[in-house]
Amino acid sequence: MSITELAQRIALSPAATHARLRALEAQKYIASYTAVLDPEKLGYDFTCFIQISFKENVLDTLGEFLDKIRAMPEVVECYKVTGEYDCIMKVMVHTHRDLDRFLTENLNRMAGVARTHTSVSVNDVKIHGSIPIPNG
Predict the structure, then answer these.
(1) Which of 43, 50, 56, 66 gives 20 to 30 Å between its CA and that of 113?
(2) pLDDT at 22 over 90
(3) CA 49 to chain centre
(4) pLDDT class for 135, splitting at 50, 70, 90?
(5) Is residue 136 part of a domain?
């Protein structure tokens, strides 16, 4: 939204709103700005969530493994997590064949992967949520 729209929403002048934004950016509360693209318009029909269990000896090469994950364009988000699996990632591909290729030729061949579990999204219920801002 524009500075003017934001200023109206928070009941400040545009100049004061702009100054506050610059302060929040300088203090790193605002990490970046981004455009939200429509995946369907770009031909991405499959949003998948892949859970990964690491082999026990992966700790020695975990940094290398995570660097490879970061370099994969299909991986939109990736998190190390607690629980039954060690890692969960959001992957976007064009077709089911692309998903098969990603799993068989990339992910499952990586050293350190013990097993994976893939779930395919059938409906986006809520995406691009925002972080709750505490009052005060």
Answers:
(1) 43
(2) yes
(3) 11
(4) low
(5) no
pTM score of the predicted model: 0.80
Is residue 64 situated within a structural domain? yes
CA distance 55 to 119: 21
The residues, any chain, with a CB within 8 Å of residue 119's CB and separated by 6 or more, are 48, 49, 50, 51
State which amino acid sits at residue 77.
Answer: E
Together in a domain, 71 and 29: no
CB neighbours of residue 52 within 10 Å: 25
Give the residues across from 88 on adjacent strands. 51, 79
Domain co-membership, 82 together with 113: yes
- Strands (E) across the chain are located at 46-54, 75-80, 87-93, 113-120
Per the structure, the complete domain to which residue 105 belongs is given by 46-120
Using DSSP's 3-state secondary structure scheme, residue 62 falls into helix
Domain presence at residue 134: no
Look at residues 126, 105, 131 and name the one whose alpha carbon lies nearest to residue 47.
126
Q: What is the pLDDT of residues 29-82, one digit of tens each?
A: 998 888 888 888 999 989 999 999 988 766 677 888 889 999 999 999 999 999
Handedness of CA 125, 104, 54, 116 (dihedral sign): positive
